[in-house]
Amino acid sequence: MLARAGIEQRLTEVRQRITQAAARSKRDPSRIRLLAVSKIQPISVIEEAYGAGQRVFAENRVQEWLEKAPALPDDCQWHLVGRLQTNKVKYLDQNVAMIHSLDRFPLLETLNAQGERRGIVWATLVQVNTARDPAKAGLMPEEVPDFLSSVRECSHVRVQGLMTIGALGASATETQGFFRRLRELRDTLQSRVFPGVDLQELSMGMSQDFELAIEEGATLIRVGTQIFGKR
C-alpha cells in the first residue's frame, strides 16, 4: 500500500500533467475532470486519495461500487467505467453519477426500464470502439447514429457524450488517432439533433495515455495506476 504522502504526490503530479497538456492544446484545464479509478483498491487507500482532495472515483465492477460507496463520504462522486451487465442494473441507484459503457440496445432498454421503475434518469456515455479491436466492447463508429436515434424512446436515459479505450500495444501515434476519431465523430454528430442526447463529454485516456487524450479533447480521463500505483 502507498503511504498517504505517496498518493498526495501522485495526485499532484497527475494534476500538473493535466494542466500542462491542456496548455499545450490551448484548453481550459477546468474542463477536464480527473476520475481516480479505484478498482481492486481497498477502502483505506481510497480514503487516502479523498484526504488528498480527490472527490471523483470510478469503478469497473458494480459489486466493488456497492461495497465501497457506502464507506466513503457522501460528497464522493462515483462513475462506472467497466462493461455493465444487464443483470447488474437492478443494483444501481441515483448515487451513480455516470455510466461510461453504454454499448448495446439491451442495456439501453434495461437502464430505461429500471430508471422508469425507480424514478432515475441515468447519465450515460456511449462506448465506441474507435480502434475496431474485436477484443474490446463498444459500438463501431458507423453504428453510433442509429443507436443515438433510439435514445428518444428512452426518457430515463440521457447520453452526455462518448467514451473510448485505446488498443493494447498501440503506438502513441495510433492511440492519439483513436482519440481523434472519437472527437471527430462527436463533432460530426453534434450537427444533428438526437432527442435525449447532449454530446458534451469525451471520456478517453488512462494512466499511460491521458495526455494524448487531453490534446484530442478529452473532458473525462480515467487514471488508476498513476495515482494508486500498481496493484
CATH architecture: Alpha-Beta Barrel
Q: Would you identify the CATH H-level superfamily?
A: Alanine racemase
Shape: globular
**Strand segment tally:** 8
The SSE order reads: HEHEHEEHEHEHEHEH
Percentage of residues assigned to helices: 25-40%
| Biggest sheet descriptor | 8 strands, parallel
Query: What's the alpha carbon Rg, rounded to whole Å?
Result: 17 Å
Explain what you see.
The protein has 231 residues and is α/β, with parallel strands linked by helices. The protein has a single domain (4-225), classed as Alanine racemase (TIM Barrel), CATH 3.20.20. The chain is built from eight helices and eight strands; from the N terminus they run H-E-H-E-H-E-E-H-E-H-E-H-E-H-E-H. It has helices at residues 4-24, 43-51, 62-68, 105-118, 144-150, 172-189, 210-215, 225-228; strands spanning 33-37, 56-59, 77-80, 96-102, 122-127, 157-163, 197-203, 220-223. An eight-stranded parallel beta sheet has the order 7-6-5-4-3-2-1-8. Helix 1 (4-24) packs across helix 2. It is globular, with a radius of gyration of 17 Å.
